[in-house]
Write a structure and sequence with these properties.
Helix content: 10-25%
Mean pLDDT: 80
Number of strands: 12
Distance between the termini: 148 Å
Low-confidence stretches: 4-16, 227-231
Largest sheet: 5 strands, mixed
Radius of gyration: 54 Å
Strand order of the largest sheet: 2-1-5-3-4
């Protein structure tokens, strides 16, 4: 009967050592917070302390940190695991008594924080297969109306090469009587007088009058500028 009683006492002591909620004081720099952590429906864990600190000090959420507590010898003990946390609570909190667990937060220098494991090197990317030779597409005909045929200056002859009639632009001298050139002859050499470029036979001038720099007024006769007046080149 003594062994059964001793076994029952051990089970009772083991059950009473499990705590669901405790009161803690959290120290960070010049701030002290007193809160209750834990859940009535589950056992107390280190995660309860960490989530409470994240809620109270959101600026520390993404910073490397550690928790410290002072043992009976006055030494500051580091807590990083759930086992270390439960051991600290067992030393600071006595079940059935009004006691508070005290934890200090220390933000680690990033240079001293353990470096993350290097990421594995990416697998080499295989070279893409050469693309098949493309067959050039046949040229696409330009859309839009076909170009207009060159203008024909009926009854007008080139006074250089003698082509008759002039096809394309016609160049009419502003001084020489009845003097016309085709585009080919006009481009061969510089002319001594100004030339009027006529694209369309319907746009030929009825009369040309030129006042030169010395004040002399010169120009072809009125009939020389149109078509069919006085022979070719009119």
């Amino acid at each position: 009967s003594e062994d059964i009683h001793s076994k029952t006492n051990k089970q009772t002591n083991k059950q009473s050592s499990k705590m669901n909620q405790i009161t803690v004081k959290i120290f960070y720099e010049d701030e002290v917070r007193r809160v209750q952590i834990g859940d009535q429906n589950s056992e107390l864990t280190f995660t309860h302390l960490e989530s409470t600190v994240d809620a109270i000090f959101p600026a520390l959420r993404n910073l490397p940190r550690t928790f410290l507590w002072k043992d009976e010898d006055g030494d500051m003990i580091t807590v990083t695991t759930n086992t270390e946390f439960l051991d600290a609570v067992a030393c600071m909190v006595v079940p059935g008594q009004t006691s508070v667990a005290k934890f200090h937060i220390k933000v680690l220098d990033e240079a001293k924080a353990p470096a993350p494991a290097p990421a594995p090197a990416p697998a080499p990317t295989p070279a893409p297969a050469p693309a098949p030779a493309s067959v050039p597409a046949p040229p696409v005909a330009a859309s839009g109306p076909p170009p207009a045929p060159p203008a024909v200056h009926a009854g007008v002859e080139c006074d250089e090469c003698g082509v008759f009639p002039i096809v394309g632009p016609r160049f009419k001298c502003t001084v020489r009587d009845d003097f016309d050139l085709c585009a080919s002859c006009e481009s061969r050499q510089e002319q001594p007088f100004a030339m009027v470029k006529i694209y369309d036979p319907m746009h030929h001038p009825a009369m040309l009058v030129v006042v030169q720099q010395d004040g002399t007024v010169r120009g072809p006769r009125a009939g020389d500028c149109g078509r069919g007046g006085g022979g070719r080149g009119r």
